[in-house]
Amino acid sequence: MIYDVIIVGSGPAGLSAAIYAVRAQLSVLVLEKEYMSGGQMLNTYEVDNYPGLPGIGGFELGVKFREHAEKLGVKFFNIEVRHIAEEEDGRVKVLHTSREEFRARTVILAMGAHHSTLGVPGEKEFSGMGVSYCATCDGAFFKGRTVAVVGGGDAAVEDALFLARGCEKVYVIHRRDELRAAKLLQERLKQCKNVEFLWDTEVAEIRGDDQVECVKLHNKKDGSERILSLEGVFIAVGMKPNTGIVTNLLHLDKNGYIIASEDGITNKPGIFAVGDIRTKHLRQIVTAVSDGANVISSVEEYLNRQ
Ligand code: NAP
């Protein structure tokens, strides 16, 4: 079978595109690598900026999106795409996976992004033994303990807010002297009595025996170093796009994001990009969902021209 559209990835952008595709009466298949739909939403404790659903859990929102798509008849297949090729002068796209091939007239890439690392000694060694990239997943293990969050963006501040509810003490270690996060989140965090900010500070090393016991800190302003005792280090220093399968196929920007605007159109006709994987100003659930709607209009225009 040749589908009208195959969507790779099932975060908010992919699921929104799937809903709009089926409502446009296109034959659509979603290929997802993980066993759960929702992408990064699954690791978000609380989504407080999705209109109409204040305070909804990210996991719950992911389930709702998936149920909505399934109710409209979208089919899902749990498999990892390894390579994308073209046939018939590019009119048919072939998606190679570990087990079989799938064919479609158009492909929508919605693979999202993943957590960046610090790249310091001890980070890899203690991953899962005190080093975590997901406060909502692992925070409960650190109830009543002292932890640090590294980073100054929305994710870092959200993580610190979440951890401050259960941990005895939360250090926020940031390499500059001001946060990048939304002002409202910043204000909330500054009101937490058990949160302390360590400005202009970098983690130079993570140390311990079986588990994390301390971090070596480097102050960027005065060059001083100190050891801080703690039991958990939550790293929230941004994301990297999951563009591995298309690096030789599509034009990417200097940070590795697929160059595409709101219409999702890439340099390759018939291949579209939506959500966190494409170049954009604001990576949010609501902007990902918007991408999903816009791209189906582009897909329809493309198919009508064929
Ligand atoms: P981000 O906004 O890129 O922030 C990354 C933070 O990590 C920055 O403060 C950055 O410092 C710091 N950083 C980067 N590399 C570092 C390194 N090697 N060592 C130390 N610090 C480093 O990333 P994010 O917080 O993951 O957010 C990504 C996107 O998702 C954003 O658009 C954000 O708005 C969105 N998001 C939204 C929500 C929400 O609305 N509820 C929640 C989470 C994420 P500098 O500030 O000095 O660059």
Task: Walk me through the structure.
The longest helix is centred in the C-terminal third of the chain and has 21 residues, at 285-305. The protein contains 6 helices and 17 strands. It is elongated. Helix content is 23%, strand content 29%. Helix 1 (12-23) packs parallel to helix 2 and helix 1 crosses helix 6 (285-305). The relative contact order is 0.17. The strands form 4 sheets. Strands 1, 2, 3, 4, 5, 6 and 17 form a 7-stranded mixed sheet that branches. A 5-stranded parallel sheet has the order 8-15-9-10-11, with helices on one face. The protein has 306 residues and is α/β, with parallel strands linked by helices.
Structural class: alpha/beta
Shape: elongated
Strand content: 25-35%
- Output the radius of gyration: 21 Å
What share of residues is helical?
10-25%
* Major sheet: 7 strands, mixed
**Low-pLDDT sequence parts:** none
**Order of helical and strand elements:** EHEHEEEEEEHEHEHEEEEEEEH
Average residue pLDDT = 95
Number of helices, where a helix is a run of at least 4 consecutive DSSP H or I residues: 6
Q: Please report the distance between the alpha carbons of the first and last residues.
A: 18 Å
| Number of DSSP strand runs | 17
List the ions, cofactors and other small molecules found in this model: NADP nicotinamide-adenine-dinucleotide phosphate
